[in-house]
Amino acid sequence: MNKQIRKRLVRFYNVFDADGDGYITQVDAERSLGNLAALRGYKKGSPDYESFRAAYLIYWNDLLEATDLDQNSEITEEEWLQYHEELLTNKSKAMQTILPSVFALFDVMDADGNGSISMTEYRNFMHAFGVPDKWIGDEVFQKLDINKDGSISKKEMGEVVDQMYFNPDPSCPGNYLFGIL
Fold first, then answer.
1. By percentage, how much of the chain surpasses pLDDT 90?
2. Which CATH class is domain 3-176?
């Protein structure tokens, strides 16, 4: 695996490891879920919250099933990288696997439902995963906003994700998806 792509995947892993204990677990998923639900204004126990929780836990269980190679309900960094190394051997298959989740998260990020992500929406979403401000400044958003119109469209997000996984150039927009490395 290319060194730069590996670096991005480690950052991605660390974003999902919400409590920073070196494992991605259901506790991390529930913490991120709670933060994302709060971001959307869903109150715990409400129908919106329960629907969102059910959808998010399907995503979590699919992720766990795919990446938890020893089936101990914890995803280690090694398992995460091994899963991605295998996945990324076939770009077409990888993007078919990755993009549905990316676009579902895009819809969560798009809090006002206008079909694009503003700088505020991007930052709020990243904060829900515990990404610090120092990683997600204006420069980062400008890199992700490929067409420079002040927002990120679903198409742009797809391009950024493609670059994150497949473009080893450290200056490409995909290098910045989870903030400055």
1. 76
2. mainly alpha
pLDDT in tens, 166-180: 999 999 999 999 998
Distances (CA, A) of 30 to 26, 37, 67, 70, 104: 6, 10, 18, 21, 17
Grade residue 101 by pLDDT with cuts at 50, 70 and 90: confident
* Helices and strands (H and E) in the chain: how many: 8, 2
Task: Read off the pLDDT band of 56 (50, 70, 90).
Answer: confident
- Of 98, 94, 122, the residue nearest 108 (C-alpha): 122
- Three-state SS for 103-131 is HHHHHHHCCCCCCEECHHHHHHHHHHCCC
Give the up-direction half-sphere exposure of residue 119: CA atoms within 13 A in the CB hemisphere: 12
- The span from the CA of 96 to the CA of 165, in Å, is 13
Distance CA 42, CA 38 (A): 6
Residue type, 26: Q
Domain borders along the chain are 3-176
At position 156, the amino acid (one-letter code) is: E
**What CA–CA distance (Å, rounded) separates 163 from 64?**
24
